[in-house]
Design goal:
Helix content is 63%, strand content 9%. It is an alpha/beta fold.
Length: 369
């Protein structure tokens, strides 16, 4: 059995490597794209969850907190009593920002000294962090101007101390490049797998496979395993480029990263085999692949924050393997995440992989017979 499967794998790899025909990129039905981008593709930053650590507990500090809470951009979800609670809230993504007001805030204001206010933002998404810090800076400036008008003073008395965890320089490459690992791996794997059976049907060689002693499961393995191999190689090249060329820090463990990569590629392979089993021509396979890829990327947190999407769409993204692999790859790169902490993202990908591979096998056997 495995000798025949290995021969089919070699055949598939050679067919992919020697194919010089240009692949035409097809756009999915406009209605589906309109629904996806209309509801999900938004860069507005509203109701950002924040926590407040007010050590001063004065009228001035409460006025500053009220300006944050009363703005459209922020929503207070926690009031802290100790600075030790900050790390846990940001690590768990419960809040995207912590507003920390020094205990000498009012005294420094009255003495016309720099009154320190610290804003701690989650820097794993550099674009979101920059927007958060920009909004916070605007509110601090307005508060300072209002205080000077009512109490006098020549210079703004409040000094904003800005910090971003996990991405101190707020480099967009640290956020984008790890995400490209997921995007390109999915694109390459889905195209290779999605076109495999359709290409065989168009050239007439699929009927030749059916008259061989190989069983449908053997043919399915021979079509699916090359996608796993190509996806793994593609991801490895991008990971090396991220580390060596773009100098993105890899703070976590490679086993945790590659476990997530294996589950992600297995899920994408199952989806590609489903598309390939249903498609009769390569054009149909391409249409099916891009019909899945565009919403998958949009609903993955690659560029558009999932937290800003409607609740129903947020729930639907749980079935998107790319969403979970993005959390894995960014967690390993930027946060130093371990396999144990990434378990909530491993099991959904494993579930999607099992369901899609089972469905692909059922569809394949049904089309064969």
């Amino acid at each position: 059995m495995w000798h025949q499967v290995f021969a089919l794998i070699v055949k598939e790899l050679l067919a992919v490597l020697k194919d010089r025909k240009s692949r035409m990129v097809l756009i999915g039905p406009p209605l589906i794209q309109l629904m996806v981008f209309g509801y999900a593709a938004t860069f507005d930053l509203d109701h950002v969850p924040i926590a407040v650590y007010d050590e001063d507990q004065s009228a001035a500090s409460r006025d500053l907190v009220a300006r944050f809470v009363g703005s459209r951009a922020f929503r207070e979800v926690a009031s802290l009593r100790s600075g030790d609670e900050i790390d846990a809230l940001i690590d768990s993504r419960t809040v995207a920002m912590v507003l920390s007001i020094d205990r000498r805030f009012t005294r420094d204001l009255l003495l016309h000294r720099p009154a320190r206010v610290q804003v701690i933002a989650d820097g794993r998404n550099s674009n979101t962090a920059l927007l958060i810090l920009g909004y916070a800076n605007s509110i601090i400036t307005d508060f300072s101007l209002a205080w000077m008008q009512s109490h006098g003073g020549q210079t703004p008395p409040t000094v904003l101390d800005m910090r971003a965890r996990y991405n101190p320089s707020l480099s967009s490459q640290w956020f984008i490049v790890p995400g490209i690992v997921a995007v390109l791996t999915q694109v390459v794997t889905l195209l290779v797998i999605g076109l495999s059976v359709a290409r065989e049907r168009e050239t007439g060689t699929f009927d030749q496979l059916l008259v061989t002693p190989m069983r449908p499961i053997d043919i399915l393995l021979g079509k699916g395993l090359p996608g796993l191999l190509i996806g793994g190689v593609e991801a490895t090249v991008i990971i090396l480029a991220a580390i060596l060329w773009f100098h993105v820090p890899l703070r976590g463990s490679l086993p945790a990263l590659y476990l997530g990569l294996f589950l992600f590629v297995a899920a994408v392979t199952g989806i590609g085999l489903m598309i390939s089993s249903l498609a009769v021509t390569q054009q149909q396979a391409l249409l099916g692949a891009f019909l899945f890829m565009v919403p998958s990327i949009t609903l993955s947190d690659f560029a558009t924050p999932i937290a800003n999407m409607p609740r129903l769409i947020q729930d639907l993204t749980q079935a998107n393997p790319m969403r979970h692999f993005l959390a894995v790859v960014r967690g390993v790169f930027l946060e130093g995440a371990t396999a144990h902490s990434l378990w909530p993202h491993y099991w959904p990908m494993a579930l999607v992989a099992a369901a899609s591979l089972f469905a692909a096998g059922w569809l394949f056997r049904r089309r064969v017979y």
